Amino acid sequence: KSSEQLELTKRQAAYEIALRLNGKAIPEFVQLFLDEAWKDVLVLALLRREREPAETQQCIDVIERLVTSVIKPNDAAVRNEVINGLARLLKDIKVGLENISYDFHESAPFFKELESRHKHLLAVGLSEADAPALDEEVVLVEFDNVICASPEDDLLQELESEIAQMPDDKFSKRANNMEVGDWVEYNSAEGTALRAKLSWKSSVTMQCLFVNELGAKAMDISLADFSEELRQKRMTLLGHEKVPLVERVLMGMKKLMTPDGAEPSLA
Asked: What phi and psi values does residue 198 have, to the nearest 5 degrees?
């Protein structure tokens, strides 16, 4: 379940960045920084938004201010506003990177290129004639396909596509129809026969979590991969009826302890 939440959060972060970059012509090094470093900062903020609600907006504000700072200002007022906010922008970026323990040496080239970009566009400390020439590539960022839907819808479309690509055979049908409580049998790497019970099946990512007879995690596998395991005869779906001895003993004990008319549960 936590892996599903993390996946959705990563998509949300990518979605938020895409919204702010779409249609903007920015240096390639800035796009790479946002995709490879700042996205992790935003993911952390999104995961902590219930405890620190302002942190997410601060991360998004950094994206917007950074993008504005690397685009040629339309007039002197915008230029002065960007210049006045540079110190705070750089500080906020460094604080965000520190929050994810980002390697200082990894970020050094980014800050060097950013300084060069600012000196050229804003002539910080220099006259425009003395400002250094730019040699980095500027790219027009367009994410039409990314921002047409929410991260949840995007994930759902991807999931539907993955399910549609599964072979239309009995193994895919068995995997799709598998229910929580069903048991499977498979062999360990050493060849030992093992059994596990489906404990949770995500309706969002279609990941399947199996536990062993003691309730400990046995494996986490996607529906598509599980159907392939069935197809290759590396796993066997037993269903509810072939319950291991330990499970039957527990069920019998619960029946003895359950009042008449009540339904025993192994949960």
From this structure: -70, 115
